[in-house]
Every structure is written in structure tokens, then in C-alpha cells.
């Protein structure tokens, strides 16, 4: 039976709100004392001169010297504006304040939106940690690079000289995700289906690879643009017996085997910052095993300088001329030598013996010197110096491409004053990943073969030994499956006591929950600091 409304209302106490309620009273007093305590704490902090409580977080380390001068950066108070407008695109720091200290160039002249219309505080958000200012989150980069539909500013489209850039990919979202970041451009060109493609003229890949036909090849292809002959496999080949003794390797100057398979730094020396590798030097790295001998009978063990052909010819001419002036006749007999020696004028005391300005070569001597120079140039340019034994393992043609000069090709008689041959420029790349940052020093624990896959099998200079993006993802990723997939797809490297092999890398990554950094700023930079001035505007 349902009760009526009169019966229900009679059960309620009219003065119930006046009855004491312990829970409500406790809540009220707690709120009151919390408010009073907060006001007292704020007042005490103000009296002590502590203003950090009003900040969103501590300032970054480079800005500590101005942390008590908020007006150095801030111009307005925008939290209320953000709250009202429900937009994060409102900042209390103007770009002019940042540019007082940080004079940086723009990113790309045809980017959209314009560089100068982007607030510095969009990416560089202060009070979010000491490192945040230098390493913006990926979301700021992805905001633009995930959809680069318009790479030219609308105002520039009317100018025919300004065209949309074709250098970078238009959809980049995440490095460690397959499909989130494209393969390195110089690696994609090596794939047969992309052999007919050509990067944009300003792309850095064209500084390292080129589509051409190397001598001895059947067709043109994308390959290392270096015009020099080198064989990694021959230099890294080494065999050891069961006891670990070296039984095969390169033959050194003392006729002993040399093992370079674990000594990449023998030739590849890091620079002072240990970021990149210094250029290969003939004098430091090649000359010991590949001397440029020219006349082993008259000048045993002497080499020509590793210089331009004109300098080499000048060196040979001077060498044989001095020999003739000392009466060691080039190609002459002993009697002829003694006769010429008696005809030489006596040297004046205090002057250079046998090198006086009054001494001149006869026509016969000059002809013999010229013949000796030409013969020495022919021997020096030979592909191999077999007649000189193991010490002479190659001349200019052993590594370089030697071609006749235009004068030699068009003239009936070769010139005597200048060399009639030339060396094709080597074009050895100095930087490979031109659009990215890299630091060899950070990877020094790894064996070189872990990243430079199959380097011990490379027999041609055209082989591009730069690792692919999957090799980088083996460590720079948060997904352990990528580590195993990338490492298992590579050939095993050699174990070295001072380096980590692939097996060691697998064990190391298996024990870790997250790999190396893989944020955008790890490899890329937005601002171009080239030409930035160090003399700032602040005075005493």
C-alpha cells in the first residue's frame, strides 16, 4: 500500500537543519584553516623575498642568471587570457625579447607559416625543466612535419623564383615507428626501383652519392661519388689459428702480418670533438704501405710527394738535375762521369757547392734529365710496381684515375715545362648525413661493424656503407621487437675486447626497458647558427 505525501512529510523534522552535523562542521573548519594557512604561507614567502612560488617551474640552467628579473623575458600576464580564449597560442614572451640574446637565422625561407611569425615560446617553453628549452618535445615538430602540404608561403607563390621545397619528406610522425620516418635518402637511391629518381638539387644526398659508371663496371648506378679505388675487404682480411696467432693479414713494412680487422681507428681517426672522422691522409695512412717510388736503382726507397702532377714533375726535374750537377751522369758511363767532373769549375769558398748559379746543364745532360723524368713519371703512374718487390705495392693508378691533360690530348708533341697528365679529383665525401647530426664519440662502445654492416665484404669504393635507418632503430627505439628484428637482419660483427659486438648489444638491450633517445632533436636542428655573432647587447 502506497503512503500519501502527508504521511511522508510527517516523518521529516522541520528543524533538522539546526541539528548539529559533525561531518559538515569538520569539513567547514578544515576549509577555513586551509585557506588561512595558505594566506599565511604566501605572506611569509613574500616577506622572505621568495618569488619562486609564483612560477610554473624552475627556469632552465642557461637562464639562471636572470631568474629574478622576470621583466627580462615577460611583457604581459596571459594565464587569464588563455583561460578565457581556451587557446595555448598566447604567450607572455615576445620574440624581440628572445632575439636580444639569441640571434639566430630562420629555418627555411619558404616554410609556412613564416619563421618570424612563429613565437619562440611555442617550442621553447620555459619553467618546464632544465632540459626542455634545448630539447623541445616531438609534438612541436610533428605539428608541422606530419602534414607539409604547403611548403611555400602563399605570398611567394606569385614569385616564379620561389618554388616549394622538395628536400624533405612531407609526413614524419615518429622515428622508431615503421613508416613514421622515411629511409635515409642516400639509401633509397641504391634500391633498383628508385634508380631512376633524382633528389632535389639542394638535397644533401647529392654531396655523397652520384649516378655514374665507374671504370670496370657495366652500367651506371647510384654509388659513392668518390673517384678513388679502395678495397675494404682486402685491408680487413685476417686469419688466426686455434691459438689466436695471426697466420694471414696485410704485410707490413717489417714483413710481418698486420690485422686491421679490429683496428678501424688505424685509418679512421676522430676529430677533436670526436664527432666525425678526419679525412684520410696519404702521408699518415697510406704512404707506409704504398710508397710512390720512381727510380729504385738510383734513388732506392725514395718517393715522390703526394701532390699535384706539376709539383711531382718539378720534384723529379730538381732531383735529376741535382744529380747531373753532382756529376752522377744519368745513364752515362764511369769515364764520362770522370771527364765531366774534371771540367767542372772549382767552387768558391762560402758558396753552395755544386749548386752555384754559374752551373748549367749541357744539352746532352738536359736531354737525359728530361728522359729520366718522363721515364720516372711512367713508372710512378703504373698500376703495380712488381719490379720493386713487396715494398712498392702500387703507383698513382693503383688508387687514382690518371688522365692526359687537354694539351697532351690535342698536341702532337708533349710539353716539357708542365706535366701532361692529371689526377681525376677524388670527390671523397666529408659528411654523409648532411641533414642530420651524429656523434661517433657517443657510439664508441659499439664495434664499427655493428653499424657499418658488411664492411669486411666491401670490394668497391662505390659501396655505401652508411647504416640504414633500421640499424639506427635497433637502439634508438622504445619497442624491443625493433631491436631484435634490426639486429637479427644484420651480419654478425667481430668480438672486440674494447667494443661491444652485436651479441653484447642484444644482451644489453634485453636488460633495458627503453633504448637510446629517438626524439627529433636528437638528430635534427631547427635553427641555423652559421654566422651567429658572439658579441651580445648586454653591457655592464
Keywords:
two-stranded antiparallel sheet; 28% helix; 540 residues; mainly alpha; 3 domains
* Main pleated sheet: 2 strands, antiparallel
- The order of strands across the largest sheet is 1-2
The portion of residues forming beta strands comes to under 5%
End-to-end separation in angstroms reads: 92 Å
How many β-strand stretches? 8
Work out the count of structural domains: 3
Backbone shape = elongated
Radius of gyration: 37 Å
How many separate helices?
A: 18
- Residue stretches low in confidence (pLDDT < 50, at least 5 long) are 151-157, 328-342, 386-392, 489-499
Helix content: 25-40%
Determine the structural class based on helices, strands and strand pairing.
Answer: mainly alpha
Helix and strand pattern: HHHHHHHEEHEEEEHHHHHEHEHHHH
In round numbers, the mean pLDDT is: 76
Descriptive report:
The protein is mostly helical and 540 residues long. The chain has 3 domains: 53-156, no CATH class; 176-280 and 431-518, no CATH class; 286-342 and 358-423, no CATH class. Helix content is 28%, strand content 4%. The strands form 4 sheets. It has a two-stranded antiparallel ribbon. The chain has a two-stranded antiparallel sheet with strand order 3-4. A hairpin with a 5-residue loop joins strand 3 (239-240) and strand 4 (246-248). Helix 17 (480-488) runs antiparallel to helix 18 (502-510). The protein is elongated, with a radius of gyration of 37 Å. Residues 151-157, 328-342, 386-392 and 489-499 have low confidence and may be disordered.
Amino acid at each position: 500500500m502506497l503512503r500519501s505525501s502527508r504521511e511522508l512529510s510527517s516523518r521529516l523534522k522541520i528543524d533538522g537543519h539546526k541539528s548539529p552535523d559533525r561531518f559538515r562542521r569538520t569539513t567547514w573548519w578544515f576549509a577555513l584553516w586551509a585557506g588561512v594557512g595558505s594566506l599565511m604561507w604566501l605572506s611569509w614567502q613574500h616577506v622572505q623575498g621568495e618569488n619562486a612560488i609564483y612560477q610554473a617551474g624552475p627556469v632552465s640552467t642557461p637562464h639562471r642568471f636572470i631568474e629574478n628579473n622576470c621583466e627580462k623575458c615577460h611583457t604581459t600576464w596571459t594565464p587569464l587570457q588563455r583561460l578565457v580564449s581556451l587557446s595555448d597560442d598566447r604567450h607572455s614572451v615576445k620574440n624581440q625579447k628572445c632575439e636580444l640574446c639569441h640571434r639566430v637565422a630562420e629555418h627555411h625561407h619558404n616554410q609556412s607559416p613564416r619563421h618570424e611569425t612563429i613565437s619562440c615560446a611555442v617550442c621553447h617553453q620555459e619553467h618546464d625543466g632544465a632540459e626542455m628549452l634545448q630539447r623541445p618535445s616531438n609534438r612541436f615538430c610533428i605539428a608541422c612535419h606530419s602534414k607539409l602540404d604547403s611548403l611555400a608561403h602563399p605570398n611567394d607563390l606569385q614569385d616564379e623564383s620561389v618554388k616549394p621545397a622538395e628536400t624533405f619528406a612531407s609526413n614524419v610522425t615518429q622515428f622508431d615507428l615503421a613508416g613514421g620516418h622515411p629511409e635515409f635518402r642516400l639509401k633509397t637511391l641504391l634500391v633498383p626501383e628508385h634508380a631512376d629518381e633524382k633528389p632535389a638539387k639542394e638535397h644533401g644526398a647529392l654531396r655523397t652519392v652520384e649516378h655514374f659508371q665507374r671504370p670496370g663496371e657495366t652500367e651506371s648506378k647510384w654509388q659513392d661519388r668518390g673517384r678513388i679505388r679502395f678495397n675494404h675487404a682486402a685491408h680487413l682480411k685476417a686469419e688466426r689459428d686455434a691459438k689466436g696467432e695471426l697466420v694471414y693479414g696485410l704485410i707490413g713494412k717489417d714483413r710481418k702480418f698486420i690485422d686491421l680487422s679490429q683496428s678501424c681507428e688505424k685509418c679512421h681517426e676522430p676529430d677533436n670533438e670526436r664527432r666525425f672522422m678526419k679525412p684520410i691522409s696519404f702521408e699518415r695512412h697510406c704512404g707506409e704501405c704504398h710508397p710512390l717510388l720512381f727510380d729504385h736503382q738510383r734513388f732506392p726507397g725514395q718517393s715522390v710527394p703526394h701532390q699535384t702532377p706539376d709539383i711531382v714533375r718539378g720534384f723529379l726535374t730538381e732531383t735529376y738535375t741535382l744529380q747531373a750537377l753532382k756529376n752522377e751522369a744519368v745513364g752515362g758511363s764511369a769515364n764520362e762521369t770522370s771527364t765531366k767532373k774534371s771540367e767542372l769549375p772549382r767552387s768558391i769558398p762560402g758558396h753552395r757547392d755544386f749548386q752555384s748559379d754559374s752551373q748549367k746543364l749541357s744539352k746532352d745532360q738536359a736531354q737525359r734529365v728530361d728522359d729520366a723524368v718522363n721515364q720516372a713519371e711512367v713508372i710512378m703512374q703504373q698500376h703495380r710496381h712488381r719490379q720493386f718487390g713487396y715494398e712498392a705495392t702500387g703507383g698513382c693508378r693503383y688508387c687514382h684515375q690518371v688522365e692526359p691533360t687537354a694539351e697532351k690530348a690535342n698536341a702532337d708533341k708533349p710539353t716539357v715545362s708542365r706535366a701532361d697528365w692529371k689526377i681525376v679529383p677524388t670527390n671523397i665525401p666529408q659528411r654523409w648525413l648532411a641533414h642530420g647530426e651524429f656523434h661517433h664519440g657517443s657510439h664508441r662502445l659499439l664495434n664499427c661493424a655493428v653499424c657499418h654492416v658488411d664492411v669486411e665484404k666491401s670490394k668497391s669504393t662505390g659501396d655505401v656503407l652508411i647504416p640504414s635507418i633500421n640499424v639506427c632503430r635497433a637502439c634508438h627505439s622504445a619497442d624491443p621487437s625493433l631491436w631484435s628484428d634490426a639486429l637479427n637482419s644484420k651480419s654478425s660483427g667481430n668480438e672486440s675486447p674494447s667494443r661491444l659486438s652485436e651479441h653484447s648489444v642484444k644482451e644489453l638491450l634485453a636488460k633495458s626497458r627503453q633504448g637510446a633517445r629517438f626524439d627529433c632533436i636528437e638528430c635534427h636542428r631547427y635553427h641555423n647558427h652559421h654566422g651567429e655573432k658572439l658579441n651580445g647587447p648586454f653591457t655592464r
